[in-house]
Amino acid sequence: MTTTVPEKHEQAAPEPGDEHIPGAASDPFAQDTLPAPRDASRTLLFSLLRPHRARVALGAALLLTQQAAVQAVPLLVAYAIDSGVPAVRDDDHGPLVAVAVAYLVCALGAGLLQYTFIRVAARINQSILLELRGRIYRHAQALSLDFHDRYTSGRLISRSTSDVQSLRELLNEGLQEMLIILVSIVYIGGLLFYLDVGLGGAALLSFIPLYLLVRNYRRRSARRFSERSSAIAAVIVKFSETLNGIRPVKAFRRERANDAAFDRLNARHERVNGDTILEMARFVTISRLIASFATAGIVLWGAHRVTSGDMELGALAAGALYIRRLYDPLDRFAMILNNYQSAVASLDKISGLLSQRPDVPEPERPVELPPRADGRPGREVVFDRVRFAYRTGGEVLPTFDLTIPAGQTTALVGATGAGKSTLAKLLARFYDPTEGRVLLDGTDLRELSTAELRRGVVMVTQEAFLFSGTVAENIAIGKPDATPDEIERAAKAIGAHDFIASLPDGYETDVRKRGGRISAGQRQLVAFARVLLADPAVVLLDEATSSLDIPGEKAVQEAMETVLRGRTAVLIAHRLSTVEIADRVLVMESGRLVEDGPPAELIAGTGRFSDLHRAWRDSLA
Amino acid sequence: MSASADPPASPARKRSVVRSLLRLWPYVRPVRARVFGAAGVAVVAASMSLVMPLVLKWIVDGPVAEGDTAGVWLGGGVLLLVGVLEALLFGLRRWLVARPLAGVEAGMRAALYRHVQRLPVTFHDRWPTGQLLSRGTGDLQLLRMFLAFGLTFLIVNSATILIGFGVLVAQDWLLGLVLIVPVIPLIGMCWLFEVKFSVVARRAQDQMGDLTTVVEESILGIRVIKGFGRHRSQARAFRALSRELMDTEIHKARLLAAIWLVILALPELFLGVALVLGVGQVADGTLTAGTLVAFMTTAMALRWPVESIGFLLALCNEAATATDRFFEVMDGKVPPETAREKGPDDGDAPDGLVFENVVFRFPDAPPDSPPVLDGVDLHIRPGETLALVGGTGSGKTTLIGLVPRLHEVTSGRILLDGTDIATLPRREVRARVALAFEEPTLFSASVEENVLMGADDAGPGDLDRALRVGQADGFVAALPQGPLTEVGEQGLSLSGGQRQRLALARAVVGRPGFLVLDDPLSALDVHTEARVEAALREVLADTTALVIAHRPSTVQLADRVALLSGGRIAAVGTHAELLHSNDEYRHLMTGERTEVPAS
């Protein structure tokens, strides 16, 4: 029953019933990258932006105008001194008034345009994030269980949370800042060209070493950041592992050994953390040095040209001040670049997830199931020449035929990996068969809409997951429009009413709040009440492996019999006591049905089931 | 004692910001020279930035205008020197604090980790892992940021503002005053904005948390959702929460837009007034054009320091909150190793494990609630194995947790070979008592390390023996690297049954005198259970053991059984005796009900 999972990051939980092919190193699921078309993230970004084209254009226009207003201010100062002062001396207040008005317009304009821009940008950003969150959510819900089995829940959660978060940070803070920086550089560059072509050209040349530096920093910092994030991840894992296992930590006196192990991880993080900060320091120093040399060089060259009469003195005076401003945003630019890199990495992962296609497509022309024959709750199930293999090639179920008459309870027995869960998942249409058909009262499952299918077939795992919310809401998952009366009736029929009534707020008790603690056995009863309320024709039951005490087990077994009465049922049995309530036992081995018959008959025989049963009997002694 | 405070920190400030931040001093003290040195360097660098425009102006107005070539070269040289100095000082400031402050962050994290490990289990029961983890990561990173950046620039920018305005007023007191007028309201409005903004930002964070919960649940519960085809309330909650979050974010953006309007427009308007007045003065000849240019340039250079004050104050506020959150945990009291002094009646005799009138109530339970254990008397003789049976919630797990002192008894005594465990150092108690929990936890380490952590000095022979007892030798040998295979969170994940068998091996590896097992066979399949039992029986033959049992097969391991009911030991005897004489016991072991006991 051991499994081989060579990849450290991929944890294929080999719980009973989980029969997927473990992630080999070549499996894309084993690494955290899903195959996606090369330009998937760009396509994704454009598809998110497209509905907001008009707003994006408006935002861009606002930003361009706003930066024009901001950059105009030094020009106004220059104009006021150069033209305003002589005019005032000539008693002409016209230019000064013009400057005052222009200054007022620029000041208020810059503020108001910025105000509008932030609000427009927020609309765009938030709509994009809303859409993206929704897409990931819906997509994750639509993907098959096969996918969920392989793509761990932790990763899916981090796709929908931290990856969206890093995109959010870029959109909210980085992108707009980056645009402002770029626009201001373009404006200042333009102004320098306007003042003097040579001045502009020289400033432009100075961006060559700066560009090389930025490129070099990007490469180096990417490496530092990935070192740092894996170092902090190691610290976090150690920290949370200790906290989650605090009882064994204390019981086995691990405190000192843990201190030492933690110190090692912490010291590594300290080192790479320092490296990252120093990398930034290096960039800032070098970029400022380049800027200083460029400024001094350009001013000297300009001064030389002024003395030789090639350039106006005023142009140099204004140009010298603008050059300073040209290099000011370099530090911020480096920081935003880091944000941008992590956002791009996140977007890549998200688009990889979104480009996964659901394995079980909806039918184009769905059909309805015929009404149940003579009002009985069950339906007939037929596996018609069914074969199932993973797309990677491993055959799980060789071709087989199986008919389960309406109302029959069938137990599937066999070792882990024998194919029990796969058979059940084919019936629930979590997978489609590679060959052959699965029929429900003669209708191929692939022709049924999801809603119709789930009215017909319900799969329950007894290790029941409870959603936050009230007990009543958790039962009503089986039938969202159920009345409180129906819910209570289902709970009573299952035998769950007594314990629910004894909870602090009865059916309205929040299962995640204090006092709402529900034991494993009680969870199973809630899960059964769900099924009873859903009233499906076919029930697939994956039995729990966790142990209950004996009274709990009895209650669960009684509830199970209530649920199964009259329905067609397939039980994946882990305990042989469960098998006793079945009408029929199917023993599976390596994907084949090797024994088939009523339990009593198989026990009396000499096959595998008979051996298994004897061993179990002995253990009960 | 603040350890009993509820984990989610109340946003209300109990201390002033400054008093909270001062608590950081012991951690910062070792690197104080570097931190203040960096602040000094930053002040010099900032003045370089103020000087730079003046130098530029001087070159253009002076040597260039006069055609003085030597002067131009000199000016260029000065310009380069100032620029290079500025660049190097900026770098120096960062270099000075980079490693020391990474060290402060790491030191605080290590202190937190050490402390948290030693806080009592009751503390951990109240504090979710996430809360402690966020103190160890996000809060400490914020504090480093604050020390590296916030604190420095609060000093530097305040100094720059004071110096800058001194220069301005000295150059022209009227124009200087015009520019000072908006500074106070501007800083005030920035501060007010940060306060309002942090409230909304906090709301956004909470909503993000709720949204994350829904997302997590719909992923963790995907099998239920798929099984029933839908979960409308879940999808509805997702839609509603993501809408709410969007509204809050847009509210945030509105506040941000408003403050930007103020920041951009207000100082600029006063600069405009100063410009017009200045031009008037220049025209009158009371001011030189060069002075006006220098004045305007200095005023513009002061904009960022002024604007940043509000943000920096808010950062102080956040840092103070992070400090409080950190010390909330650090202030938790670590209980002393021994709970009381050795008394005269504490003998030392091989007397097994004795519970004497043990009462236990959770420290945070209301005082009028009934105790979980209400006078437990039990004697497990040396070498004896006693099974503990009881209904769900009867306190079995709590009772056995008292033996290695994971919890302290409220009253009464527990004696190990005649010595009250309260008089022994905790480490010693835990060295003598080995445990296996129902939920077996493996740490991220090799199988071998996981098992051997149960013993102080065990050899390879002990490992093999322990693995055999847990019937784990077979599957361990088949692992990719055998007993050296990494398991746990970071390694290979094993099935519940496999983990349980390794936990059992860990409990027996050190040949402990006392063994406490919580339903050690619950996750095993039928065949394995029988084999483990056989091997365990040999170990138990000469060990004093207390075993929680849920089913008859586990009870078979024990010499006697004790029934825990209503916080007391209701009956003690052999399995057969209790089956015959006790209705509750019969119900628990067979599911049959002859009369209805209080459940």
From TrEMBL, chain A:
Domain ABC transmembrane type-1: 57-342
Principal location class: membrane
InterPro entries the UniProt entry points to: AAA+_ATPase, ABC1_TM_dom, ABC1_TM_sf, ABC_transporter-like_ATP-bd, ABC_transporter-like_CS, P-loop_NTPase, Type_1_exporter
Xref: CDD domains: ABC_6TM_Rv0194_D2_like (cd18546)
Organism domain of life: Bacteria
Membrane-topology descriptor: Multi-pass membrane protein
Membrane-spanning residues: 56-81, 93-113, 178-195, 201-218
Region Disordered, residue ranges: 1-33, 355-376
An example Gene Ontology CC term for this record: plasma membrane
Pfam family, one: ABC_tran
Annotated compartments: Cell membrane
UniProt GO molecular function: ABC-type oligopeptide transporter activity; ATP binding; ATP hydrolysis activity
Keyword presence, Transmembrane helix: yes
Record key words, sorted: ATP-binding, Cell membrane, Membrane, Nucleotide-binding, Transmembrane, Transmembrane helix, Transport
SMART domains (UniProt xref): AAA
Keyword Flavoprotein belongs to the record: no
Compositionally biased tracts (Basic and acidic residues): 1-21, 359-376
ABC transporter domain location: 381-615
Family: Belongs to the ABC transporter superfamily. Lipid exporter (TC 3.A.1.106) family.
Protein name in the entry: ABC transporter ATP-binding protein
Organism whose genome encodes this protein: Streptomyces radicis
UniProtKB/TrEMBL annotation, chain B:
One function term, GO molecular function aspect: ABC-type oligopeptide transporter activity
Compartment annotation: Cell membrane
Residues in ABC transmembrane type-1 domain copies: 36-318
KW rRNA-binding (keyword) present: no
TM regions (residue ranges): 35-60, 72-92, 145-167, 173-193, 255-279
InterPro entries found in the cross-reference section: AAA+_ATPase (IPR003593), ABC1_TM_dom (IPR011527), ABC1_TM_sf (IPR036640), ABC_transporter-like_ATP-bd (IPR003439), ABC_transporter-like_CS (IPR017871), P-loop_NTPase (IPR027417), Type_1_exporter (IPR039421)
Keyword vocabulary terms for this entry: ATP-binding, Cell membrane, Membrane, Nucleotide-binding, Transmembrane, Transmembrane helix, Transport
Gene Ontology CC annotations of this record: plasma membrane
Membrane topology of this protein: Multi-pass membrane protein
Classification via Pfam families: ABC_membrane, ABC_tran
Keyword Cytoplasm included in the entry's annotation: no
Name of the protein in question: ABC transporter ATP-binding protein
Native source organism of the sequence: Streptomyces radicis
